């Protein structure tokens, strides 16, 4: 249970290189995640954003060691605080989860156990990971509940999840995640089930807690609005690949990949988009990821598609400024395309 | 339901007059049932061709209102008028002919064991409209209208993507050539790129068929984009109602303001909004006294704790807030939420 304090050479909390996840399905092999690279530092927020089926949740499950049995994972590197996660056993992984890696899921009603009290569930994490006894666990639970803005924390410990509102449940979930002071927190759509006013509060809370506890945060969401406001760095995923990565400013103000551009045009922005006007949209649907894939997987939906898109592998080009994108277009071409009408450059 | 004198030609296609709906909620067989006022005294009007958006947090009564507009629930008080005629006095079938729903989740609102042709023609079958051949022609016509290829005619919903399923749901709603569509969160189960396609489709259909929409959503960016009139609900009450431009550009109720502030747009130059709303949504079985919003309102005073604000008509809409109806009394009354706001 101990041994989680080795001094690592790199200062990345999590370092992932060339992550691939393949899932066996009746129809063949599903290429769920392909060649994904990312890293998270302490105190940093990485947002993984994409539509359903893009592989963002599978990526997070791979990092947490929670992939289904039918899935196989390969990676060149997968380290948490310098510790190699590729070689740990299932048992050791279970010790890391809840201790070094915390998880916050979408729906706090289903991720909290309805038959145990809040206190019971929070204390269990602490005791299970050998951090101390019941008394210390209780004190830490009260301390953290107060931290997440829950009043009368001591009395809340005796309550059951159904007695709390959705926002409160998510606060409890966050407090529980922090019981063992994790180095990395993975939040998978943590605010999607909440009302907008509560969403802003929970996001603010996560930011404050991150400043205080200094953990790395991987935030998985489909909501570009949330990403723009909280991310230090962004990875846009499409069809199992990271198609664009960079800091929030780069990705949102100067998107280079046609998919990112298309997504941003789909969202009406109050004050900017003319009310009632035609929104941009991405025609077509996500390709089936079964079997070997060739070329750019976005080409069938892309208005800039050309011959070069159909074959070979397109690398994630990262310039010196860490803004990378997986597209055959050169930056100059992309910029010119943005200025022109989007459909002006369909392939010959 | 009292007999209503009928206005021969109403300028509104849909109108609510002091509509309320109360549910009696019991905790068990031997406890007394308590009233839950899901919708209270709502009055609003929609003109033909408009998009009325109903916004508010979960539990504010928007879905109950939608069900009443569809004629699926009867109001416990007040009247819903369709072209000036109370819905309660019209045959259920006629209501269904004019007003049709589109639901949130196209994964659960379509029967998985029926083909698209069966799903879309079901309303025609129920109302015994046309011969089988005519129905089939109508189904094909609508499928084309909503952008579904004809080859999907005999497919099952499980073979379709989320966006296609929502198109089927829209097609089914349009089969009867209704005048009003009640869309309850029509895009919240869909991906961003698909959401845009469906919103564009709804806009096109509205222009083409001169439809009127009641659009229920919690996504304010979408609402602002789609709507021409907005009804903001809080705990069963209509706290602000007006034209979209008015409500979005000059919100008057503090709750509307807070809702607008909490919209997160993909603009990284802005940080997270700090919404000092303190506590969460109150329990509708035990609503706060006075103005229901007062425990969360940054402007609340002692007056708000005991006095229910009355709707104030202004600029073609209404607002229910003491700040606007009794500005003098509000200025004199001591504030109550200042400490709370900073503590939260």
Layout of helices and strands, plus pairs?
The complex is a heterodimer of chains A (348) and B (344).
Chain A: E1 12-25, E2 28-41, E3 45-49, H1 56-64, E4 71-74, E5 77-80, E6 83-84, H2 90-96, E7 101-104, H3 108-111, H4 118-128, H5 134-147, H6 153-156, H7 166-177, E8 184-188, H8 196-213, E9 216-221, H9 224-230, E10 233-238, E11 241-247, H10 248-253, H11 258-266, E12 317-318, E13 324-325, H12 331-339
Parallel strand pairs in A: 3-9, 3-10, 7-8, 8-9
Antiparallel strand pairs in A: 1-2, 1-4, 1-5, 5-6, 10-11, 11-13, 12-13
Chain B: E1 14-25, E2 34-46, E3 51-55, H1 62-69, E4 77-82, E5 85-86, H2 92-98, E6 99-102, H3 116-126, H4 132-145, H5 162-174, E7 180-184, H6 192-209, E8 212-216, H7 220-226, E9 229-234, E10 237-243, H8 244-249, H9 254-261, H10 302-306, E11 312-314, E12 317-319, H11 322-325, H12 327-332, H13 338-343
Parallel strand pairs in B: 3-8, 3-9, 6-7, 7-8
Antiparallel strand pairs in B: 1-2, 1-4, 4-5, 9-10, 10-12, 11-12
Helix pairs in contact in B: 3-4, 3-5, 4-5, 5-6
List keywords for this structure.
heterodimer; A: 348 residues; alpha/beta; Rossmann fold; five-stranded antiparallel sheet; 12 helices; 13 strands; 32% helix; 22% strand; B: 344 residues; four-stranded antiparallel sheet; 13 helices; 12 strands; globular
Task: Write up this protein.
The complex is a heterodimer of chains A (348) and B (344). Chain A contains 12 helices and 13 strands. Chain A is an alpha/beta fold. Chain A has 2 domains: 12-87 and 184-348, 3-Layer(aba) Sandwich (Rossmann fold); 108-179, no CATH class. An 8-stranded mixed sheet of chain A has the order 7-8-9-3-10-11-13-12, sandwiched between helices. In chain A, strands 1, 2, 4, 5 and 6 form a 5-stranded antiparallel sheet that branches. Chain B is α/β, with parallel strands linked by helices and 344 residues long. Chain B has a domain at 253-275 and 288-344. In chain B, 33% of the residues lie in helices and 21% in strands. In chain B, the strands form 2 sheets. In chain B, strands 6-7-8-3-9-10-12-11 form an 8-stranded mixed sheet, with helices on both faces. In chain B, strands 2-1-4-5 form a 4-stranded antiparallel sheet, with helices on one face. The longest helix of chain B is centred in the middle third of the chain and has 18 residues, at 192-209.
């Amino acid at each position: 249970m101990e041994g989680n304090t080795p001094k690592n050479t790199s200062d990345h909390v999590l370092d992932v290189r060339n992550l691939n996840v393949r899932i066996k399905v009746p129809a063949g092999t599903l290429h769920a995640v392909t060649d994904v690279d990312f890293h998270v530092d302490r105190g940093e927020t990485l947002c993984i954003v994409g539509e359903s089926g893009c592989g963002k949740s599978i990526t997070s499950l791979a990092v947490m060691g929670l992939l289904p049995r039918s899935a196989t994972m390969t990676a060149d590197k997968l380290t948490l605080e310098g510790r190699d996660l590729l070689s740990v056993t299932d048992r050791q992984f279970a010790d890391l989860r809840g201790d070094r890696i915390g998880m916050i899921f979408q729906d706090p009603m289903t991720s909290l156990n309805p038959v145990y009290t809040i206190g019971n569930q929070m204390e269990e994490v602490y005791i299970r990971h050998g951090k101390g006894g019941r008394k210390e666990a209780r004190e830490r639970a009260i301390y953290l509940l107060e931290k997440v803005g829950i009043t009368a924390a001591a009395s809340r410990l005796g309550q059951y999840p159904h007695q709390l509102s959705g926002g409160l449940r998510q606060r409890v979930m966050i407090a529980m995640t922090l019981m063992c002071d994790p180095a990395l927190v993975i939040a998978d759509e943590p605010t999607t089930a909440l009302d907008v006013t509560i969403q802003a509060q929970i996001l603010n809370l996560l930011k404050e807690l991150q400043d205080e506890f200094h953990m790395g945060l991987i935030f998985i969401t489909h909501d570009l609005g949330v990403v723009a406001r909280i991310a230090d760095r962004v990875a846009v995923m499409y069809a199992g690949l990271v198609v664009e990565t960079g800091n929030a400013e780069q990705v949102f103000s100067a998107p280079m990949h046609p998919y990112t551009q298309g997504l941003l045009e789909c969202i009406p922005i109050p004050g900017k988009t003319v009310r009632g006007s035609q929104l941009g949209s991405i025609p077509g649907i996500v390709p089936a990821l079964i079997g070997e894939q060739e070329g750019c997987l976005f080409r069938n939906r892309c208005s800039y598609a050309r011959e070069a898109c159909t074959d070979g592998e397109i690398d994630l080009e990262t310039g010196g400024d860490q803004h990378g994108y997986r597209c055959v277009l050169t930056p100059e071409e992309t910029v010119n395309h943005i200025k022109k009408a989007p459909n002006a450059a369909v392939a010959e | 339901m009292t007999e209503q004198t009928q206005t021969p030609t109403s300028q509104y296609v849909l109108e609510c007059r002091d509509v309320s709906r109360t549910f009696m909620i019991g905790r068990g067989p031997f406890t007394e049932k308590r009233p839950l006022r899901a919708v209270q005294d709502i009055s609003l009007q929609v003109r033909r061709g408009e998009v009325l958006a109903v916004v508010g947090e979960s539990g504010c009564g928007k879905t109950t209102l939608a069900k009443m507009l569809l004629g699926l629930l009867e109001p416990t008080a007040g009247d819903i008028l369709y072209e000036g005629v109370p819905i309660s006095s019209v045959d259920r079938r006629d209501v269904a002919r004019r007003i049709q729903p589109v639901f949130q989740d196209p994964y659960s609102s379509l029967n998985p064991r029926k083909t698209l042709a069966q799903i879309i023609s079901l309303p025609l079958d129920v109302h015994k409209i046309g011969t089988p051949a005519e129905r089939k022609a109508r189904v094909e016509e609508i499928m084309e209208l909503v952008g579904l290829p004809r080859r999907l005619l005999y497919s099952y919903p499980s073979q379709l993507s989320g966006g296609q399923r929502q198109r089927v749901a829209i097609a089914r709603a349009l089969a009867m050539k209704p005048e009003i569509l009640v869309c309850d969160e029509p895009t919240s189960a869909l991906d961003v790129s698909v959401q845009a396609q469906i919103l564009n489709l709804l806009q096109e259909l509205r222009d083409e068929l001169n439809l009127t929409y009641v659009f229920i959503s919690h996504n304010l960016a979408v609402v602002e984009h789609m709507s021409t009139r907005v009804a903001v609900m809080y705990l069963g009450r209509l706290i602000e109602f007006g034209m979209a431009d008015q409500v979005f550009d000059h919100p008057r109720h503090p709750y509307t303001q807070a809702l607008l502030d909490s919209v997160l747009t993909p603009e990284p130059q802005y940080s997270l909004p700090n919404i000092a709303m303190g506590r969460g949504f109150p329990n509708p079985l035990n609503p706060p006294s006075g103005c229901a919003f007062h425990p969360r309102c940054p402007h609340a005073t002692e007056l708000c704790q005991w006095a229910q604000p009355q709707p104030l008509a202004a600029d073609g809409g209404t607002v229910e807030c003491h700040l606007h109806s009794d500005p003098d009394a509000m200025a004199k009354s001591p504030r109550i939420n200042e400490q709370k706001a900073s503590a939260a």
